[in-house]
Amino acid sequence: MPQGSGRYMAWPATTRYGLSVAPGNLGLVQDFLNTITEGTVAPPDLLATLSSAQEWADKVIEQWISIDDLGWAKTLPRLTERDRKALLAFRDDLFEGLFGHSHSETVSGPGRDNHTYRPLMTVSAKGIELRPDGEGWKYFETALLLICHQGQLEGILRRMKSCKSETCDAVFFDRSNNNSAVWHDVKLCGNRANVRAFRERSAAN
Ligand SMILES: [Zn+2]
After folding, report:
1. How far is the CA of 165 from the centre of ligand 1 (A)?
2. For FRET with 44, which of 30, 35, 57, 156 sits at 20 to 30 Å CA-CA?
């Protein structure tokens, strides 16, 4: 048995918001995005310091290894300050790519690689496969993109959403039948908007 019974561990960042977890490896992408501080409860941004980023990384990799059914999860090198900054910029890119808006103002500068990623393509008796590739944490970023790409093909990526609130970007997985949820938490973020809509409807009657 691995130490800590990883299978039963929760995703460390998403758990802070008590949110519905995306299935399988997509939970890793969701957890990475939820390292942000959202607007209402406002726990710290887990990538804000090297020590908190490393603490998150240790937990998330352990969890990834325990649920991984693609054979992609692996232990990664200890984070450097350069890695941490690259992850912050990548997180903004991913918000942009998935939800059409950045989380924070993207800072470009030293430490930022270009925005291209090279997966590895293999052909064998198992078929044609795309796998993540790259050194260090670039491997992690490529894995997240491939997981998103796979989710896109399977049609489940559109259920992963960033809260509609202007001050909150918490990322939740929408399990409603018609994929219509817009708030990460109706009480925290939806309530004010819902009350306003109700008043507008009442006034119109
Ligand atoms: Zn929210």
Report:
1. 6
2. 156
CATH of the domain at 36: 1.10.3300
Band of the pLDDT at 126, cuts 50, 70, 90? confident
Quick one: which of 142, 141, 22, 155 has its CA closest to 131? 142
Are the C-beta atoms of residues 174 and 151 closer than 8 Å to each other? no
pLDDT in tens, 164-193: 988 889 999 999 999 999 999 888 888 866
Q: Does residue 25 belong to any structural domain of this protein?
A: yes
116 Cα to the center of ligand 1, angstroms: 30
Q: Is the pLDDT of residue 109 over 70?
A: no
> How close is the Cα of 76 to the center of ligand 1, in Å?
31
Domain count, the chain: 1
Residue 129, strand partner residues = 122
User: 139: CA distance to ligand 1 center in Å?
Assistant: 30
* Å from CA of 69 to ligand 1 middle: 30
74-to-79, 133, 145, 200 alpha-carbon distances in Å: 14, 12, 16, 52
Domain contains 1: no
Residue 197 lies in a domain: yes
Domain region containing 25: 6-204
Q: How far is the CA of 184 from the centre of ligand 1 (A)?
A: 4
CA of 190 to the centre of ligand 1 (A): 7
